[in-house]
Specification:
Mean pLDDT: 92
Structural class: alpha/beta
Number of helices: 9
Radius of gyration: 19 Å
Helix content: 25-40%
Distance between the termini: 5 Å
CATH topology of the largest domain: Rossmann fold
Strand order of the largest sheet: 2-1-3-5-6-4
CATH architecture of the largest domain: 3-Layer(aba) Sandwich
Number of domains: 2
Order of helices and strands: HEHEHEEHEEHEHEHEEEHEH
CATH superfamily of the largest domain: NAD(P)-binding Rossmann-like Domain
Length: about 280
């Protein structure tokens, strides 16, 4: 499956009519999302009369907007991006085990009985994407920036994949400490703790903050001593090369952007949303 589509597929995508089923992706901001470029060709290839659209949801109107979306009879599911992966939980009827463990949701679907069910695929997607590219995660010592919805998913998934140690950094120290405690309790073999953004003793750096999305953003943290032996992952989707990625590449690091996570989670999310087999 690729994010591009053939002229024939693109033509089928353009045929939206009164029977078209809708999928959304919600966030604030929303211009950076790449999911429609992945899922719309997949919908077309599966022969489904359906389309995924980005929806910009403002924080002060979040509950009303999302409840309105879920009340639309032709909306079958939606994905969730920053900053709403935790905030959406109280609006759903059921949270599946991975989402409950992470404390965040990035996809929700309408069940045949009308109930809304949510699950989390960010962390599993990142692990899958990196593994498919030959990256070994077992035994890694990870410095994770960000303890929000995306960071929580990454922490749990990396611990589940066999990371030996995890240092979690967040401007909200209590949030970082809570995530570290939750991760350590679920995965005693992973030495999870909260701390400062100190690269010493780590061989992998993950940015799970929004820093890097906006024009003029700098690095998400001071990165003195970044060496070529560090694996650097920035889960920001747009721009394709963030300041962190550019900085790391200049120093010879192995670097991956948000696309690795998107590619890794695409099949699992598509199956969850029931939008066709793998393309």
């Amino acid at each position: 499956m690729t994010a591009s589509s053939s002229p024939e597929t693109a033509g089928r995508q353009a045929l939206i009519d009164g029977a078209t089923r809708l999928f959304a992706i919600i966030g604030d901001p929303i211009a950076q999302v790449k999911s429609p470029g992945v899922f719309n060709p997949r919908l077309a290839a599966a022969g489904l009369n359906a389309v995924q659209v980005p929806v910009h949801v403002l924080p002060e109107r979040f509950d009303a907007t999302v409840r309105g979306l879920m009340a639309m009879a032709n909306l079958d599911g939606f994905m969730v991006t920053v900053p709403y992966k935790t905030r959406v939980i109280p609006l759903l009827d059921e949270i599946l085990p991975m989402a409950a463990k992470v404390g965040a949701v990035n996809a929700a679907r309408r069940e045949p009985d009308g109930r809304w069910v949510g699950d989390m695929f960010d962390g599993r997607g990142l692990v899958r994407g990196l593994t498919e590219r030959g990256i070994r995660l077992g035994g890694r010592r990870v410095l994770l920036l960000g303890a929000g919805g995306g960071g929580s998913a990454v922490a749990i998934a990396l611990a589940d994949a066999g990371a030996a140690a995890l240092t979690i950094v967040d401007v909200d120290g209590a949030k970082a400490a809570a995530l570290a405690s939750r991760t350590a309790e679920a995965y005693p073999g992973c030495a999870a703790r909260s701390g400062a953004p100190d690269l010493a003793g780590h061989d992998m750096l993950v940015n799970a903050t929004p820093t890097g999305m906006a024009a003029g953003d700098g690095l998400p943290a001071p990165l003195d001593g970044l060496g070529a032996d560090m694996l650097v992952v920035d889960i920001v989707m747009k721009p394709e090369v963030t300041p962190l990625m550019a900085h790391a590449r200049e120093r010879g690091c192995t670097v991956f952007g948000g696309r690795v996570m998107l590619d890794g989670q695409a099949e699992e999310v598509a199956r969850f949303l029931r939008i066709g087999a793998a393309g």
